[in-house]
Amino acid sequence: MSNDNYDAHSQQPTQAVGGTKSEPYLIGDAMSGGYGQGPDILHDCTIAVNEGEIAVIVGPNGAGKSTAMKAVFGMLNVRKGAVRLDGEDITALTPQARVAKGMAFVPQTSNIFTSMSVEENLEMGGFLRRDDLQGTIEQIYDLFPILKEKRNQAAGELSGGQRQQVAVGRALMTQPKVLMLDEPTAGVSPIVMDELFDRIIEVARTGISILMVEQNARQALEIADKGYVLVQGANRFTDTGQALLNDPDVRKSFLGG
Amino acid sequence: MDFLNAIVALANFVIVPGMAYGAQLALGALGVTLIYGILRFSNFAHGDTMAIGTMFVILITWGFQSAGITFGPLPTALLALPFGIALTGLLLIGTDKVVYQFYRQKKVKPVVMVMVSLGVMFIMNGLTRFIIGPGDQRFVDGERFLISAREFKAMTGLKEGLAIKTSQGLTVVTAVIVVAILFWFLNRTRTGKSMRAYSDNEDLALLSGINPERVVLYTWLIVAALATVAGTLYGLDKSFKPFTYFQLLLPIFAAAIVGGLGNPLGAIAGGFVIAFSEVTITYAFKKVANYLLPEALAPDGLAQLMSTDYKFAVSFSILIIVLLFKPTGLFKGQSV
Fold it and tell me: Any chain A CB within 8 A of the CB of B107?
């Protein structure tokens, strides 16, 4: 697989984790805010991800998991706190401008162009790029071989798991440095879920940071470098995925014993 | 022989006019369906956009004719068509900047946009009548027939004649070319694909970096071309009268909805469904029946289901039946 584009990033994480950098690659720092003029949903919430790592946001229903991620992506008003990407303050940028900065977002629903073919979905994902997209499309086909088989089929005709692969593939077309996934395994079967998680780990290995909201807390924490447990819009527990899985409090309250 | 005569009579009075009318409706419905799919409202000003586009073409045609420029056996209007499309395009983009953009930025509901388009319709309608007058305008020149009824009879020795007007042949050929270019554009070019993506999923298109204002601009340009071509072909085939174009709105919307709003293939199919329904239901089948049936069974009356005055009732009935039983249209479109 030709990974020239990603090699540059894949070497850096070791340094970042080694502690030469004081701040994570992407951080939503002590964010408070809500939708429009509505009340605050987030309260001093901090979410961060290092280069090439997987960070997972878990928590009960209505804890503000998706809201926290949308705040990082600029889809709601952050009234206090800041979002920084590679040290640069991007709190005021629109979601579109953040895409240009190297962030990619896969919404939970309507995350594909249903009437367009799989390949056209990928092409649209790379709309901002003026160079040849074919190389990146081939990389995505290597990552999700089933998409190559279905390249000329309308994306709306695919199964739930395949549609999620198209959605992730579309987001990867901009060659992002951070990939944000809002419940990528919602509504897919357990087998497909395991496969999707495997693919997400593969994406992370190419040096792309992954920030993900998940309902399936246990499986998600197993693959996570960093886990955030949110309750009512605030951080309750923050630790490595393994540490959270072993924490008796977290297990009792959130993982069902 | 009688059987052949029956077929020729049917072709002369139903199939050939139906094809031409169907192609005109299809071009009109394509414009309506593109605006519905991409700008997300029903554009009531479409009939009058066709009228004003045709008016530009007529004025330029007259200019050419008085300057002695003609297009040989083909109508001079074809030469004027590109200029008419350019003027209509400017007018539509101007209208968008002055009127529609304001409401789009306020993110008003589609029904408000429909009312806005109603206002635009009245203004365009008035403008057309003010400039060219409410009466009939003739701008046809060139060869009138591809095959005249007399030539056909001499050629085949049949009792029935088959006449194909130049405008009818021209309509079908032009429609095929325009539709081919449109589908190539929508399915093969980067801009065309971005228009389809925007129509499919606006939020995701924004996330992918597609600029909505550009998509809107291209949409109006394409709609200007479709409306002007459709209007000019209709004017060449029948005649140009502003009020007739306003009335065309009904069959055009019926065609777009029958095919499935937002679906270009559906708009074409819908155009032909509506056109052939109108023509067959209002055609007097007496002649055809006389050839086919034994004398004893020949109909006394005209064997006409409905008088031509009711042709709009036909498109209206089809519209209602489709809305009741298949609201998304024959092809998969959006429901109204």
Answer: no
pTM: 0.87
- CB-based contact (8 Å) between B197 and chain A? yes
Interface test with B, best of A113, A173, A175, A178 (most B CBs within 10 A): A113
Give the three-class secondary structure for B51.
helix
A96 interaction partners in chain B (CB closer than 8 Å):
206-207, 209
Q: Which two tokens stand for residue B49?
A: 């956009």
Q: What is the pLDDT of residue A6?
A: 44
Phi/psi at A78 (nearest 5 deg)? -95, 110
Q: How many CB pairs under 8 A join A and B?
A: 56
CB contact under 8 A, B207 and A107: yes
Report the candidate in A170, A184, A166, A148 with the shortest Cα–Cα distance to residue A69: A184
Cβ–Cβ gap A99/B204 under 8 Å: no
Residue A158 in tokens: 């695919």
User: For B82-116, what is each residue's pLDDT tens digit?
Assistant: 999 999 999 999 999 999 999 999 999 999 999 99
Q: Is B286 a residue whose pLDDT tops 80?
A: yes
**Predicted complex ipTM:** 0.84
Domains of chain A: 7-101+224-257 (3.40.50.300)
Give the gyration radius of chain B's Cα atoms: 21
Q: What is the pLDDT of residue B327?
A: 86
